Amino acid sequence: MNQPMQHNDDLPEFKEQLAGLIGLAQSYAEQTADHLEKQMRLTMAIGSCVDVISAANQRAATILLDALEKADSPHEPVPLTRAERIASCIMGDLRK
User: Fold this and answer.
1) Mind listing the pLDDT tens digit for each residue in 38-94?
2) What counts of helices (H) and strands (E) characterise the chain?
């Protein structure tokens, strides 16, 4: 009834398999960290693009509002349509 324990014979193989699993886990963790770092950089780049677009939209709105105000004042020596006056004001502001 007393049989010698065979699981001791399996211990080196188990340790080898465990080491392999630990290696896979470390590799996966490194890949995940690299992926998260790339994602963070991409998110920051997108945020910067959004900031630039927002600033450009604000500037465009300011130029348009200024052009609308200037277009309604009769300072043009040559009679222009309202659309022509607005376009002229916008082009003048863009050249500044």
Assistant:
1) 999 999 999 999 999 999 988 888 888 877 777 666 665 556 677 777 777 777 766
2) 2, 0
Distance between start and end Cα atoms, the chain: 100
Contact 70, 85 (CB under 8 A): yes
Phi (first) and psi of residue 72, to 5 degrees: -85, -5
In order of 1, 7, 8, 9, the CA distances from 4 in angstroms are: 10, 9, 9, 10
CB contact at 8 A, 87 and 71: no
Burial class (CB in 10 A: 0-12, 13-18, 19+), 70: middle
d(CA 86, CA 81): 9
**How far is Cα 61 from Cα 90, in angstroms, rounded to an integer?**
11
pTM of the predicted model as reported, rounded to 2 decimal places = 0.52
Please state, as a whole number, how many other Cβ atoms lie within 10 Å of the Cβ of residue 64: 14
